[in-house]
């Protein structure tokens, strides 16, 4: 097999184009097998970027040339070609290969980029540094997908790159979402002429010559440019968007023709300056299940699982939508993973996809609420934290009722440090007027969404984990925004947040077998804090709080403050308080249960902490 001979980008340069076609087929088969064997990973975008990645590594000399990948969802081929093929058996596993570029894995990876729309800002910074007196003059190439171009930060990066004049090549990997112009054959030919360095040099030379003609030079130059522009816009879709930002545009090019891509990249290298090379690819190419997936072309493996918290949310949202015609659902390009597709099928005019634009989503939701709608924004916890300023000042400051539904809160596992939802409680609990709820079961989530819709008069956040949901009886579900006591004791009180209730109850059983009397509360609401729960906790000698978010400044720290305030006011002895949670550090990928156990956030760890403190 050809793939077995490729251990570095240099090994690509001796292959013929016919051999490269065979190699592309082998790479696709390898990726499908690796992702299926691991049971998780990103398929669609990687299968579409095979020839593009081969061409990039044939033309540019990584890591001397700096290749940057937006989100990393399209970087598997890059990893395979840069010496990590044999590590794919450990993809997204504990201690194994990251699902994204990783600086610790390879000098070919410059950024650990797993949140979209950021690569052009990195590129602007790196190009500025490389072309300064302190730089090495390395060429910067940034690959960004058309989906990531829906994020506002991408346009900020474009604007600065274009007006800086820095030497940087932006490869727009367009897999058919929104940036695929229809071009005639003559238009395609014209684009090839425009991207030819000889044409660019001669055009520049002609402009200089015309400007030097006495008296009428600037008029002649203006007429020359107008004629050139008219010809371009007559035969092609307008490319003025990029060029008005100061970026030279060429394309679109066939993203599955290595020979054509190499020519385009070499031309771009010779032209220099800030430019966009537009490449059209097919997401999921070469794998029938991905090509036939009309929703996301198997962007990732998996979906909403029956019995999950997300499934509970889907059911509850549709019911709320039936009772409240003013309710609208918002997604930031993730309607499937956040459980909104069934809602969209039921209410097609009431589901709004804003693209990868969380900040816009939040402020737009505030505007919707001001106008009489009831917006529900379903988003991963790690992605909402990109828009915390908008949550604070655009929603909460205006007192608007927006319901934030935070999927993948807490320790999430396979996606690694960038995807753990461990900041939301720290941040949202500091937003004035924000109600923060954490369900401990399938039924609790549904009750909380109902109460958020019916009872709240300001912003509400409901956060739940990726893991399976507990099921409880109707009489084991709390009411409103108050805590619920699950068991009563005298020695130790455990205040559990969300999914940690299950571990707290198991720890209580273990401690009870040793003769310790344990009270367990399901906090349910992080804010507002239930003062009855606090008063009950204060009567115990030892209080433990348990959460799957950051310990510093999180829910437990807030509960501990309230316990101290209560004993001060009631003039009773202060109990010993221990706050259990995630330490403030980046947590590597592994299965959620394994991570929680390592952090002492399972039944064994909670029981061990009680023994240590009593």
UniProtKB/TrEMBL annotation:
Entry GO terms, CC: cytosol
Pfam families tied to this protein: DXP_synthase_N, Transket_pyr, Transketolase_C
Superkingdom as given in the UniProt entry: Bacteria
Residues reported to bind thiamine diphosphate: 73, 114-116, 147-148, 175, 287, 358
Comment on bound cofactor: Binds 1 thiamine pyrophosphate per subunit.
InterPro entries: Dxylulose-5-P_synthase, THDP-binding, Transketo_C/PFOR_II, Transketolase-like_Pyr-bd, Transketolase_C, Transketolase_CS
GO biological process entries: isopentenyl diphosphate biosynthetic process, methylerythritol 4-phosphate pathway; terpenoid biosynthetic process; thiamine biosynthetic process
Keyword Cell membrane among record annotations: no
Binding site for Mg(2+): 146, 175
Family: Belongs to the transketolase family. DXPS subfamily.
Protein name (Swiss-Prot/TrEMBL): 1-deoxy-D-xylulose-5-phosphate synthase
Lineage: Bacteria, Bacillati, Actinomycetota, Acidimicrobiia, Acidimicrobiales
């Amino acid at each position: 097999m050809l793939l077995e001979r490729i251990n570095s980008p240099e090994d690509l340069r001796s292959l013929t184009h016919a051999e490269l076609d065979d190699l592309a087929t082998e790479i696709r088969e390898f990726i499908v097998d690796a992702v299926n064997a691991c049971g998780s990973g990103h398929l669609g975008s990687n299968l579409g970027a095979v020839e593009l990645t081969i061409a990039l590594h044939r033309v540019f000399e990584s890591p001397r040339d700096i290749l940057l990948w937006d989100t990393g969802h399209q970087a598997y081929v890059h990893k395979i070609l840069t010496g990590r093929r044999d590590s794919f058996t450990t993809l997204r596993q504990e201690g194994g290969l990251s699902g994204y570029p990783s600086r610790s894995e390879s000098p070919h990876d410059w950024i650990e980029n797993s949140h979209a729309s950021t690569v052009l800002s990195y590129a602007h910074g790196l190009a500025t540094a490389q072309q300064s007196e302190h730089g090495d003059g390395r060429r910067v190439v940034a690959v960004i997908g058309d989906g990531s171009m829906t994020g506002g930060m991408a346009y900020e990066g474009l604007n600065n790159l274009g007006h800086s004049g820095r030497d940087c090549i932006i490869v727009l990997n367009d897999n058919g979402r929104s940036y695929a112009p229809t071009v005639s054959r003559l238009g395609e030919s014209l684009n090839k002429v425009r991207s030819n360095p000889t044409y660019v040099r001669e055009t520049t030379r002609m402009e200089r010559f015309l400007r030097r003609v006495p008296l009428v030079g600037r008029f002649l130059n203006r007429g020359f440019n107008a004629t050139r522009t008219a010809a371009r816009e007559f035969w092609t879709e307008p490319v003025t968007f990029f060029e008005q930002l100061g970026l030279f545009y060429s394309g679109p090019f066939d993203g599955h023709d290595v020979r054509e891509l190499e020519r385009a990249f070499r031309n771009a290298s010779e032209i220099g300056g800030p430019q966009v090379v537009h490449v059209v690819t097919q997401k999921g190419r070469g794998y029938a299940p991905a090509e036939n997936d009309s929703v996301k072309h198997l962007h990732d493996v998996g979906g909403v699982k029956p019995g999950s918290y997300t499934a509970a949310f889907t059911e509850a949202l549709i019911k709320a939508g039936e009772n409240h015609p003013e309710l609208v659902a918002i997604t930031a390009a993730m309607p499937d993973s956040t459980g909104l597709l069934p809602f969209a099928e039921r209410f097609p005019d009431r589901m709004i996809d804003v693209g990868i634009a969380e900040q816009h989503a939040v402020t737009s939701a505030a505007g919707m609420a001001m106008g009489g709608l009831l917006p529900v924004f379903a988003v991963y916890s790690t992605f909402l934290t990109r828009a915390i300023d908008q949550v604070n000042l655009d929603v909460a400051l205006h007192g608007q009722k927006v319901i934030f539904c935070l999927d993948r809160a807490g320790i999430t596992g396979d996606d690694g440090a960038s995807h753990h939802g461990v900041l939301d409680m720290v941040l949202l609990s500091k937003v004035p007027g924000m109600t923060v709820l954490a369900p401990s079961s399938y039924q609790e989530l549904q009750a909380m969404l109902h109460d958020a819709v019916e009872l709240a008069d300001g912003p509400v956040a409901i956060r739940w984990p990726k893991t399976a949901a507990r099921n409880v009886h109707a009489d084991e579900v709390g009411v409103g925004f108050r805590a619920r006591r699950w068991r009563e004791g005298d020695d130790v009180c455990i205040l559990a947040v969300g999914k940690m209730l299950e571990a707290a109850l198991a720890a209580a059983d273990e401690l009870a077998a040793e003769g310790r009397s344990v009270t367990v509360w399901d906090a349910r609401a992080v804010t507002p804090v239930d003062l009855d729960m606090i008063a009950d906790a204060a009567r115990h000698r030892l209080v433990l709080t348990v959460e799957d978010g950051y310990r510093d400044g999180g829910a437990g720290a807030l509960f501990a403050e309230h316990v101290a305030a209560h004993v001060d006011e009631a003039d009773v002895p202060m109990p010993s308080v221990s706050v259990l949670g995630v330490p403030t550090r980046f947590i590597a990928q592994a299965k959620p249960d394994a991570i929680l156990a390592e952090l002492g956030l399972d039944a064994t760890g909670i029981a061990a902490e009680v023994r240590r403190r009593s």
